[in-house]
Write a structure and sequence with these properties.
This protein has one domain: Farnesyl Diphosphate Synthase. Helix 7 runs antiparallel to helix 8. By secondary structure, the protein is mainly α. The chain contains 10 helices and 2 strands; from the N terminus they run H-H-E-H-H-H-E-H-H-H-H-H. Strands 1-2 form a two-stranded parallel ribbon.
Amino acid sequence: MSGDAATSPIISDFLTLASQRGIPLRLPTELLEGIRSDIGSVRFREEGDLIRYAYRVASTVGLMMCRVLGVPSVADPHAIDLGIAMQLTNIARDVREDALRDRVYLPASWIDAGSVIRATIDAQPVECKETIDSVERLLLLADTYYESADAGMRYLPRAVRPAIRAAAANYRAIGGVIRRDPERALHTRVRTTDSSKMVRSAHAIARAIADESPRSVLVAHDKRLHTALVIS
């Protein structure tokens, strides 16, 4: 069976779902563009390039999930921010792994890509410090987006809110592991423990159950977080 014949039912099913749930076709298009940009060497010049990339590969998925789950569109800015935050965490966690593939997601306006590669491969002291500082900057940026995402959790249906809160809490915790031993992140992929995941998940579920804020009350969103994005 040819590739086109094999994938056409998948495309047809997605188009049907998109029509039923009001999923803009620009979202999968942006996602594919983000995936395409990961092929081969990766370099970003500015922080805005990084944010746009995170939006494409992560926020688009979150927005499509929102449509499937019936989340009101007023929550979209916060869903975008959760995707960006989680992708920035991914980047902080995978600095070495990506550098070995000639992928440097830390913007050149923060640090030279060569310094990141030397820090992760040769462990040069100066480059290690510069890279650690840039990873901390990345985690601080992620925290800003996590905070915005957290403010929008009230819009989620109660049935899915605990799972989303737990996922966000466990992803954000990866940053804490990196902060406690930043050099480790330059030499291996850091992970959180299963026991700590269970504890955080329990706390997140309890918080989701305790949420009482009515979904009809609008949550102010900081538009500056989306300055780098052009979303039609």
